[in-house]
Amino acid sequence: MLNTDLCKILNIKHPIIQGGMAWVATAELAAAVSNAGGLGVIGAGNAPAEIIENEIEKAKKLTDQPFGVNVMLLSPFIEEVMEVVYRHKVSVVTTGAGNPGKYMKKLKEIGTKIVPVVPSVALAKRMESLGADAVIVEGTEAGGHVGELTTFVLVPQVAGEINIPVIAAGGIADGRGLVAALALGAKGVQIGTRFICSEECTAHEKYKNAILKARDRDAIVTARSTGHPVRVLKNKFAKEFIKNEKEGFIPEELEKLGVGKLRDAVVEGDVEGGSVMAGQIAGIVKEIKPCKEIIDEIVRDAKVQLQNLKGLVKEE
Ligand code: TUI
Fold first, then answer.
1. Whose CA is nearest to atom 9 of ligand 1?
2. What distance in angstroms lies between residue 93's CA and the mean position of ligand 1's atoms?
3. Which atom of ligand 1 approaches the CA of 122 most closely?
4. Range 5-202 has CATH code 3.30.499.10
5. DSSP label at residue 198
6. Per-residue pLDDT tens for 4-30?
7. Integer Cα distance of 82 and 109 in angstroms
8. How far is CA 240 from the centre of its chain?
9. 303 C-alpha to center of ligand 1: Å?
10. What are the extents of the domains in the chain?
């Protein structure tokens, strides 16, 4: 066992939570991760409330373990999605792309654990004071919408300032990453990209293959000029988007270019014209496996890494 405070708080066996990736993190993926002893998370993204309700009901049929819902705070359906989350008393809510302050009181009242993603020390402190149960500290290595700082610098700075558990995210896909995160002061990790290449993930085969093929420098940041930078695998869409940014397209025009592009990639398998969101760690993902094998391997490898590190300590 590799047990931390986070396991107790979230009622999970392993300190691994799955990223709430829009379109990718369906009930099937979330249930498989929860059944394997991690925390599976349904990604609400920009989906309407009925779709999320359907996914929650499906996940409840597929697992008797706790699972979470990630709410994307920029969603046009955020209020209705929150109503569904309240009604189903979802075990854990993770949030992305904003400040979930206005929903926290109600979530606490119904006993839902609340775990916001924070890109800075200031927001982490604010979330702790509002009653967050843990925070996900996501570095710019992550896929999708990203902040400025790296996981390596953000995790220890946040961990030194708050008393609730820190979950490290961005750049983690194996046991080495898990051990590194624990060494930096985290009590667990959130993993996204690695779980896309799982058997249970319903994303298009071409999306999974794009990640398997990706190398170290392939996950690049687009849309910096809009104020909502997004990390995606380099392809025709990413190159055109960046070209348009350089030519001075205004944020509204650029945002329009992005609409529907994640769905095109994940659901239709358009990995050239679509937005293939993935983290910088994509380069170490080489195989599609069941979630249980992915998690067991990460935990097994982390224990080996810890033993090896211990071997470096020599008495004088
Ligand atoms: O949210 C994510 N990753 C995402 S969201 C997404 S959908 C989307 N697509 C285009 C533009 C915007 C969203 C795809 N991937 N990760 C968590 C995350 N949260 N990263 C950064 C943040 C964040 C940023 C600012 C969290 C809080 C925040 O607060 C600002 C404030 O209000 O203080």
1. 145
2. 15
3. 33
4. no
5. B
6. 999 999 999 999 999 999 999 999 999
7. 14
8. 26
9. 32
10. 5-202, 205-281
Give tens-digit pLDDT for 72-93: 999 999 999 999 999 999 999 9
CA of 305 to the centre of ligand 1 (A): 32
Give 241-270 pLDDT, tens digit per residue: 999 999 999 999 998 999 999 999 999 999
Pocket test for ligand 1, best of 145, 226, 276 (most atoms within 8 A of CB): 145
| pLDDT digits 0-9 by tens, 106-134 | 999 999 999 999 999 999 999 999 999 99
Asked if 113 and 106 touch (Cβ cutoff 8 Å), the reply is no
Beta carbons within 10 angstroms of residue 250's beta carbon = 9
Ligand 1 centroid, distance to 135 Cα (angstroms): 14
Residue nearest to atom 16 of ligand 1 (CA): 96
Tokens of 221: 């940041």
Calpha distance 176→304 (Å, rounded): 9
